[in-house]
Amino acid sequence: MGLPSNLSPDEASPEWMNKGDNAWQLTAATLVGLQCVPGLVILYGGMVKKKWAINSAFMALYAFASVLICWVGWSYRMSFGDKLVAFWGKPSVALDEKYLLRQAFLGSFPTATMVFFQFVFAAITPILIAGALLGRMNLIAWMMFVPLWHTFSYTIGAFSIWCPDGWLSKLGVIDFAGGYVIHLSSGVAGFTAAYWVGPRLGKDRERFPPNNILMMLAGAGLLWMGWTGFNGGAPYTASTDASLAILNTHVCTATSLLTWLVLDIAVSGKPSVIGAVNGMITGLVCITPGAGVVQSWAAILMGLISGSVPWYTMTVLHKKIKLLKHVDDTFAVFHTHALAGILGGILTGFFAVPKLCRLFYLVPEWERYIGLAYGLQIGQTSAGLRQMGAQLAGIGFIVCLNIVMTSLVCLFIKLIVPLRMEEGVLQIGDEAIHGEEAYVLWDDEEKYENTQVNSAYDADEYPSVVSKTVSELQIV
């Protein structure tokens, strides 16, 4: 009995390709792409002060497009291609159909699918960095920063940890879906870049209210739901481990959000919506290094820790530590991404289950991937300590890499253009940079006189409404 015609191999569907895996991988990639565009575009646009809405959203949109050209031009193969040195691949294009249509280095789908899937991860990383720089970075400097940092920092981290030839991959570091490569990198790089760029205006730093909290929540929702593809696509197959990773992701995130919310209520007496979003993000970040290799009860514990430790560092320690106070990290990516990524990496080293690691890595030598908790339980303490050591080595490498490379990139750009906008531009914001405003109903000089506000109002019946100027109605 032969296969159904839709499953039979042909020139477009070779024998090595699994159609289900290919469909899931493209779906997962699209979900991660939606986290960027429009997810973080909307989140940033709504979470900043009104005068920075367009610039902040555009920084995210630009980074998404810029990284794609770098990715297919040279950086995909620097991250996942032939080894140049122990931590870096050889640059080469990923544009030829002979290369793109052959089987990917992992998984039962084409290289073209892998290129797209890994691109959206590469793209979201500098967008997260932007969260530390909103409200003052020179746009031309940002346009230079993205391809330079992507080429000389992201590719090194990705090759070292995710490429089978990378030195940290061979060491046995567990980074299921990017807790190190994406979140720890973006948190450290964002904080470092914020140091070199300098702070926002004093008045912006003192008071920086969101211009549209509902839009912020819409972006946060896309970010949360998009994480289904972020962690669910990491096994490169539509497997049981992918299902577990997705469930763990949402369990940890919900726990973290609720933990942060309870702490806010206990201390301030009010449930902060922005605080809830921060708790959501720290939960998503913390579970990412171990989403498919820890038990679901461990995901709850990770959520409790990710919702409390970053809350404490952001609300208490931040005011006491001189460096944290000095560096203007607009959206606190140091706390929400760097610290949460470190916590996730360490907790993954503690809670990683040998069986789940075998399902994910598909390797027979289970001793290589065993969490310290299970090592202590089954008398394999040395294996557990070895895994914890590998996790700490990965953290140290990513931190040092991003401090050094981000500093070098910023100093290089500074030789060409200023990193920070001029004071006059900082006073005005979007209109000075883009010649556009986020919320414009009429020209500022124009009045509503003799114009119906909407079909429910009549100019004669409501003269006090229709005579108001736009400047009186603008969102502040």
From TrEMBL:
One Pfam family, short name: Ammonium_transp
UniProt cross-references to InterPro entries, sorted A to Z: Ammonium/urea_transptr (IPR029020), Ammonium_transpt (IPR001905), Ammonium_transpt_CS (IPR018047), NH4_transpt_AmtB-like_dom (IPR024041), RhesusRHD (IPR002229)
Coiled coil segments of this chain: none
Annotated TM spans: 23-45, 52-74, 115-134, 141-162, 177-198, 210-230, 242-261, 273-291, 297-318, 330-353, 392-417
Localization per Swiss-Prot or TrEMBL: Cell membrane
Membrane topology according to the record: Multi-pass membrane protein
Primary localisation category: membrane
Family statement drawn from the similarity comment of this UniProt entry: Belongs to the ammonia transporter channel (TC 1.A.11.2) family.
Family matches, as PANTHER family: AMMONIUM TRANSPORTER 2 MEMBER 4, AMMONIUM TRANSPORTER MEP2
Name of the protein in its database record: Ammonium transporter
Species this protein is from: Anisodus tanguticus
